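User: Fold this, then the next.

Assistant: Folding the first:
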Amino acid sequence: MTFLKERVQGQESLLKVAAVQFEPQIGNLAGNKEKLISLIKQAFKEEAKLIVTPECGNGGYIFNNRSEAFECAEHVPDGPMIKELEKIARNQNGYIVCGIIEKEENLLYNTAALIGPKGFIGKYRKNHLWDVDKILYEPGNLGFPVFDLPFGKVGISICYDAWFPEVSRIYAAQGVDILCHPTAWVVVPGLAEPKNPLWAYNAMTQAHHNSMFMVCADRIGTERGITFAGCSCICGLPGFIEGPISHDKEEILFAEINVTDARRKRLGEWNHLLRDRRTDLYDNLLGYNDNQSRS
């Protein structure tokens, strides 16, 4: 399979993407790295060219304190995990979005790094901090960066970011085709459970509302009394393209997507999700003003 395949009709761009679902062990940096790299290599072997891994996959999630989290953090892009992923991406001529705990001097960030065939490309730091994230990490300070890759424009969000529709809409307005979403969705009894995976439904809705693809890679397992949800999924304008998958198994979810579909932003011949916005009516607090023309 070539890096990008072109359909005879319409010159449509097809790309195979993968969401890696696995169970990191808190504090087990060597073991997590070994397992994650094995799964990434397996995804590349199955000809995926864009691979997304879970949030904080290098060190675990439920830390007792900031010092413990700091022991599991590394510099981005100069840490050992990123350097190893650079080698793999170079050898496989592919791209990886990896959830990782980042340290910068005495600061900690919940980060996702983008690595490609030429090495480290960029990173996103989680902007909306969930629960105890607030006492472990600094709020993201890189905004919503867009990465222009050979197959299209890519954005990154992490877990709780998806509960803020402004995030995916900002990315859509910047022309993002694929939103990579490392996550650590947790089970909330009576509200969000594997039988009712609201996290996955939320991702599906975000993808549909913005005519973009979302590749959501979740973790599994129970860590210090908190159970993670699994149910990784790949979504687009039509809804679920693949998944949600299991809530308790390590596995890789694949999908071949037509990146061009995201660029159309259309819900029919007369409907366009960005041009049809009534920005003349929306509150200035949403980032619009009376003189702003519709995109």
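Now the next one, as you asked:
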Amino acid sequence: MFFSLAKCKFIQFTSILLLLIALPALAGNISIADNYFLQKQYDLANKEYLAAAEIGNPRASYQLGIMHYQGLGTKSNNIKALIWFALAAEHHYENSAVIVEKLLISLPTKQKEKAIALVSTFQQSFGKQSVQSKYYPQLLTQKLNQKIHFGDNKENHQLDSFIDDDFDRQLSFSDSLDENNFDDCFSDDIGDDDIDSSDNFQDMTTQGNFTRLLDGPYLLIADYDIALDGSIRHINPIQAIGMPKDALYNLSITTLPKPKFINNGVHFVNRAYLGMASFDKFEIRDEHPKLYSYIRRKAVKFSKSDLPQDIYPLHLKILVSGSLSDS
């Protein structure tokens, strides 16, 4: 039986619901709330659902609507249920919009008008738009046509041309490089997993071979931040073959033109392709066939795996070197 608005003044409903919506500071965990609900611990479920509803979780609002409609852990109250279902309906969650419509149809005209006004009041304070403006970033669409530029030249929107890769070329093609000695370091009797870890190279080779490997070809993909002053910080090597330590050091002391957005300095995230990471597969195959063979074997191995840790480096290698497994 529907709760009669005639039994209570409008202001009383507002006061009760405002107390109900006084939510805890910490956001509730919806999974914990669901577990409490299934265990019929409705007081605890109500607390967690309220906290989750505060940050706009539509399931939490929907569940609170059910609890107030069915009287689970509280007295049955269709007006409170209507408000919670209305908040969930803003997110198009489940059949909440249908429930709201049915609840409104069941009310007399005068009570329906008051109920709609009450729902609108709570939507303004706790609805989707209010939650998004409070907790989520807003896009400044009027600035979407603006670009980040580097240095004083506002036409420079790319970083590739700024990175001085002389040191990179010198490390990749050292005069002391002996391809045969390099082949020894990448021989087939060394496991793929060992080759992936640069820290293991020195233990697996003689000092002479280690020195030549240090001067030899390498492949490095690294993400890094560009600070307001153009300095490179927080370098994160995400793919490395060979010994890229010198390249990493040179990258760390490189200063790039300052990133700016509408004449204001900004931080920028970039990715560097160093050594043979900047080559296509034909260059690698022609100039370093053994390394090419190694990368190809790894690409074939990764292509047969469904593991994320294998799929990710496979995509990086294809991005850099082309589809090595098809060559």
